[in-house]
């Protein structure tokens, strides 16, 4: 059975939820954050989610999945499921662990140039990567309940920049919420995903 992008979105939503239930505590050099998946770095959240997926019904598929170098590059793709998908993840988090609004958080998805680490930049990397797998970008992040900053606004802007400005052809969006979460600021998780079809000549 082929693995659809919607399957990956649902699997990661459920895995992120299980990670949150374990009450992980991220830390920086100077402090330990409040429990919950919300303060974890992008890499930490993905790594812990994959550990959870190793226990799930598609365990065999995710056992074979890992971060892998791009062909002919030292850069690494966040997740390659052999023969299925090459996926880049991007975390958007409008507020920090302390509840203060983060500066420049939306640049993670909106910065519209090749070579940048934004979701737009990741789209270009995947388009030119040489991976034989289907290619996708997944954006995940956190809101308050009720939201103080709507993630969908940045997501809609990402889609608009991709289609109208840099001419990247995306599939229809897949999306899933997960939560409620244990953190007092990062209370609801959201995942958005697109298959990257191609890039038009500009």
Q: Can you describe what's shown?
A:
- This protein is α+β, with helices and mostly antiparallel strands and 202 residues long.
- The protein contains six helices and seven strands; from the N terminus they run αααβββααβαβββ.
- The relative contact order is 0.19.
The mean pLDDT is 95
**Low-confidence region ranges:** none
The main β sheet shows up as: 7 strands, mixed
Please give the domain count: 1
Counting H and I runs of at least 4 residues, what is the number of helices? Answer: 6
Give the class from helix and strand content and strand pairing: alpha+beta
Structure summary:
It contains six helices and seven strands, in the order αααβββααβαβββ.
Q: What are the SSEs and their pairings?
A:
Layout: H1 5-21, H2 42-53, H3 59-63, E1 66-69, E2 76-81, E3 85-92, H4 107-110, H5 119-127, E4 134-143, H6 151-165, E5 168-170, E6 174-178, E7 188-199
Parallel strand pairs: 3-4
Antiparallel strand pairs: 1-2, 2-3, 4-7, 5-7, 6-7
Helix pairs in contact: 1-2
Features:
single chain, 6 helices, 24% strand
